[in-house]
Structures are given as structure tokens and as C-alpha cells.
Specification:
seven-stranded mixed beta sheet, ER, alpha/beta, about 300 residues, Rossmann fold, Quinone Oxidoreductase, Chain A, domain 1, about 25% helix, six-stranded parallel beta sheet, oxidoreductase activity, Zn-ADH-like_protein
Length: about 300
């Protein structure tokens, strides 16, 4: 089969080449990949072994069902999560990490769900009930942030979105469901019950300072690249700020991801959630497109078109 392979000598460290078809384990189905969305984690290609196939997210159609009888049948449109192998014509993936997509769904749009959508959804699960409560989302214009804003609004929260450029991004974020848009968490006038933090660094410290008593901050990403330096008494419970907490999670350790993937795919397919695609490229041009992202010459959600429906 054809696949995008890590190659130091190629543009974007990627080249199209041939590899053996995957040999699935008993609990894995084989999927013919139609599209894959590119995540920030996919861009750290220097840590990827030479000749390996990157790609976390992929959507396509099952061509070989799992031998143990689990998962969807042959011919089912699906969305899949994995830590590699998404940028190939065929992908073997454990059935617990496969979600069913609605018939006729745009699989390019659905392919944005695995990392970004499930990370946002699981982070909100960690916050607990949010109906009628104030929730802050940092890094709100990123893929996880966009889904977190939309899902928070669906959950009935008053949504505050933090973005580095409120003037440029404010209208977009309000259209996604944000009630309020700020530049930094420190700009908030009122405390929040929960935070979905995708930025880390100083933004995370500021966000934690805005937590009300019993509030929870869920750390999902670390876009800032800097460390967190909390001031003295930041973790004390004075002034009504008792029992605040910071938590995180590892997506790959969760059971039940297939349910999340299927639910999110349906919401994208019916228009409830916007996938935020900014660019689609034939995977033959992946190296150039990925290089533009790494160098900051292009921004937004990139989709690689890998195959077509049979």
C-alpha cells in the first residue's frame, strides 16, 4: 500500500512511498482511509522513526472486520484514533478506538474528531456538570479549543473564550457559542467554575487564579512551550477559593472512546459541531503543507485527502 513516510531528506520530513499492508490483531479492524486531519502532535516529526507512518486521526471505511467479532462490519464508514499509521491507504486499528460515522457523512470533516473532539469532550467530563456555570476555554481558536467552546455551550455553560487576538477572532468564537471573549484569563472580571486549558504556561497560572471555590482546571495541552510558575499561596484556600484543583488525563488510557467518537461524528455530520477546516490538500502535497504549518506560514485545521469512496 501507499503511505506517507517520515524522511529527513524530504519537504516537511514526509514522502509518499510503499509499505506492507497492515496485519491486524484479533481486536483490530482494517480501514481504508479516506481523509486524515493534522494535529500539532503530528508535527513533531523529528521524534518519529525514519520510515514510519505518522498520523493520529483518520476516517474511512472498514474493509476487514476484527477477527474477534468486535467493532463495525465491512463497509461501515468510521472515524479512528491511533498514535501512528493514519497517513496511509490502510490502517489497522483496535475496535475500541473506532467510532461509526453516519452514512453519507463528509469523512474529511469527521476526521477532525479523534484527537481534538474527544480531548475536549473528555476534559468537560472531568469538569462535571456545567449547566448554568461559567467555563473558561484557553487557546480557544485551536482545534481542541474550538470543540471545547462548542461542547461547553451545548452543555449549557456560560462560555468564556480566551484568544491571543480577540479583535480578529471574537466574531468567530461568538458564532461557535462563546458568550464572552478575552485576550488573557487575567482579564476576567468574575471567577469561573471550570477551565479547559490548552495553552499552559502563564495563561494556565492566570486561569487557575480565576477559579472559584471547588473549581477545576483541566490541562489538555501545552501550546505555550513555557513552564508554570505559581506565586506564593496560589494553592491556599483563603478568600473563598477552597478546594480548587488541577487535573489532566491521557486520552489513550480511556475505555469507551468508540462511543465518544461515534457521538461526535454524528454531531459534526448533522452540523451541530463545526470542524473548523481551513485547508484541504491531496496527500501527495502533504510535505509542503505540513512544512508550512511547522514554519508558521499557514494556520488552521489541515485535512489530507488520502482516498475516495469505492
Amino acid at each position: 500500500m501507499q503511505a506517507l513516510l517520515f524522511d529527513h531528506s524530504a519537504p516537511g520530513n514526509l514522502r509518499l512511498g510503499s509499505v506492507s499492508d497492515p496485519e491486524p490483531a484479533a481486536d483490530e479492524a482494517v480501514v481504508r482511509v479516506i481523509a486524515s486531519s493534522v494535529n500539532p502532535g503530528d508535527l513533531y516529526l523529528d521524534a518519529t522513526p525514519e520510515g514510519s507512518v505518522p498520523g493520529y486521526d483518520a476516517a474511512g471505511v472498514v474493509v476487514r472486520a476484527a477477527a474477534d467479532g468486535s467493532g463495525p462490519a465491512v463497509g461501515t464508514p468510521v472515524v479512528t484514533l491511533g498514535f501512528a499509521g493514519g497517513w496511509a491507504e490502510l490502517r489497522a486499528v483496535r475496535t475500541g478506538w473506532i467510532g461509526v460515522a453516519p452514512a453519507g457523512a463528509d469523512l474529511a470533516a469527521v476526521s477532525t474528531v479523534p484527537v481534538a473532539g474527544t480531548s475536549a469532550l473528555r476534559a468537560l467530563h472531568r469538569l462535571g456538570p456545567i449547566l448554568g456555570r461559567r467555563v473558561l476555554v484557553t487557546g480557544a481558536t485551536g482545534a481542541v479549543g474550538r470543540y471545547a467552546v462548542q461542547l461547553s455551550r451545548l452543555g449549557g455553560a456560560y462560555v468564556v473564550a480566551s484568544t491571543g487576538d480577540p479583535d480578529a477572532n471574537g466574531d468567530q468564537l461568538r458564532a461557535l457559542g462563546a458568550d464572552e471573549v478575552v485576550r488573557e484569563p487575567g482579564d476576567l472580571d468574575e471567577p469561573v467554575a471550570g477551565v479547559i486549558d490548552v495553552v499552559g504556561g502563564e495563561r494556565m497560572v492566570q486561569a487557575y487564579e480565576k477559579l472559584a471555590g471547588d473549581g477545576v482546571l483541566v490541562s489538555v495541552g501545552h501550546m505555550s512551550g513555557g513552564g508554570e510558575h505559581f506565586p506564593a499561596l496560589a494553592f491556599s484556600g483563603h478568600d473563598g477559593r477552597n478546594n480548587r484543583s488541577i487535573t489532566s488525563f491521557f486520552l489513550g488510557a480511556y475505555a469507551g472512546l468508540s462511543t465518544d467518537l461515534s457521538w461526535l461524528a454524528a454531531r459534526v455530520a448533522d452540523g451541530t459541531l463545526s470542524p473548523g477546516i481551513s485547508r484541504r490538500e491531496d496527500w501527495k502535497n502533504a510535505g509542503t503543507a505540513v512544512q508550512a504549518l511547522v514554519e508558521g506560514r499557514d494556520r488552521g485545521k489541515l485535512i489530507l485527502d488520502i482516498g475516495q469512496h469505492a
